Amino acid sequence: MEVQGFEWDDGNRKKCQSHGLSLEEIESVCFNQPRVLVNAKHISDEERFHAVGLTEDGRHVYIVFTFRKSTDGTLIRPISARFMHQKEIDHYEKQTKT
Predict the structure, then answer these.
(1) What is the per-residue burial (b if ≥16 Cβ within 10 Å, else e) of 22-42?
(2) Fewest CB atoms within 10 A around its CB: which of 35, 57, 73, 77?
């Protein structure tokens, strides 16, 4: 799927930034080939996804997002983002080692 950019507004911007992340950090995770999984537990009309990955500075981040259609194409709409806990980092590192 080709993504044209991000959808930010006061709602998701404030929620994501409340965990100490900048919008640039969140976007950088999405550009750095994160691991993405469908959120099978979320019941809604809108499919949600989990992404885990690294910022440009190598910080581990967990993002919940959805895709939105716009006149410009498909956009990523982050719903929530936070830095990962050490246990999550350890799991991520173990899973990404090759």
Answers:
(1) eeebbbbbbeeebeeeeeeee
(2) 57
DSSP-assigned beta bridge partners for residue 77 = 66
Residue showing tokens 């993002």: 63
Evaluate if pTM is beyond 0.90.
Answer: no
Q: What would the pLDDT profile of 55-97 be if each residue is shown by its tens digit?
A: 999 999 999 999 999 888 999 999 999 999 999 999 999 988 8
Question: Rounded to whole angstroms, what are the CA distances from 13 to 1, 18, 20?
Answer: 24, 8, 11
Measured CA to CA in angstroms, residue 67 lies from 3, 4, 41, 76 at distances of 9, 11, 17, 5
pLDDT bin (cut points 50, 70, 90) of residue 45 is: confident
